[in-house]
From TrEMBL:
InterPro entries attached to this UniProt entry: Acyl-CoA_dehydrogenase (IPR050741), Acyl-CoA_Oxase/DH_mid-dom (IPR006091), Acyl-CoA_Oxase/DH_mid-dom_sf (IPR046373), AcylCo_DH-like_C (IPR036250), AcylCo_DH/oxidase_C (IPR009075), AcylCoA_DH/ox_N (IPR013786), AcylCoA_DH/ox_N_sf (IPR037069), AcylCoA_DH/oxidase_NM_dom_sf (IPR009100)
Protein name: Acyl-CoA dehydrogenase
Keywords: FAD, Flavoprotein, Oxidoreductase
Residue ranges annotated for the Acyl-CoA dehydrogenase/oxidase N-terminal domain, each copy included: 10-122
Amino acid sequence: MSGIGMAAAQDLARKVETFVREVVAPYEQDPRRDHHGAPTDALVHELREKARAAGVLTPHIMPDGGHLTQRETAVVLAASGLSPLGPLACNTAAPDEGNMYLLGKVGDAALRERFLKPMVEGHARSAFFMTEPAELQGAGSDPSMMITTCRKDGNHWVINGTKCFITGADGAQVGIVMARSEEADSAGGACMFLVDLPDPAIRIDHVPNTIDSSMPGGHATVTIENLRVPADQMLGQAGEGFKYAQIRLSPARLSHCMRWLGACQRANEIASDYANRRMAFGKPLIDHEGVGFMLAENLIDLKQAELMIDWCASVLDTGSLGTAESSMSKVAVSEALMRVADRCVQVMGGTGVTDKTIVEQVFREIRAFRIYDGPTEVHKWSLAKKIKRDWKQAHAH
């Protein structure tokens, strides 16, 4: 992964930051929202056209189709995250950013032209159909529990199953569907398929109200019934879906960290401004030790999160899957940013729990982030397994 160099990436990040602060942030009170507060596609389209005009649409992907390095991506995505609307405007938001990365890595030329190109150009949203309902004992943090199936039928594959928490499914034009193969030659492994959306065989049953509200289309529960997909729309090879999921998930976890770092930096700016302006008991809030210390702790947590992201990005840039490193970063960054967001609300008191600023939304989004792409406890469990495995290898003889 060659990238553009850190100096150029930092210049690009400053360009993105200027756009997000000056153009995107004023839209934060725009009323074009759906039933659970997420931006409508009309609002997203308007913002993307402004990003296109400003030259900051899909900034992490170069004109020749190459991807910035992970370290370069980190500074750009953090800048886009300075507003909850920033990643949508700049086309760096989940799940599209992770789906674009996966298609760029695994998709052949025909699939990239048909499905990836409109995503990179900002004309199409996408959804990643992996998670399944807990009541069905389906795949969640453990993808190997997948119960959605696919079977060959001539030159097509037929998919059946139920998926849930499918971010952006409502309104998406591109879907990546993951299913367990019933074919003997794929050894019961998972397969991934590219599909055009909407499709009558994929029925949205329910879009729940959730604590977060930054992602268009919400987190839908869907039923897939006899979905027929041409064989040439399989992503990669049959039975390799779990491997491809890891190719996507490790950098996608880190991308979440990048974007929400930017959001928490902005929330901390807002809280710090409030603490310096607001008077109480004869002096500004910042001069009260209980408040000043919270903001000091925010600076420490933000810097540690930034360093953790940079370290993990460096590992991924070596070509490693970085599974352990991304787990450590996901835990450390999500927990640190939760502390930052919570302190911002606390510093601002009653104002902090209103929608007068983005602080209360950032708090809600970060709480959900602790669950996205594997909750903290699953990553700790995975790391504990690695500790045990490494110990056994070290003491094998």
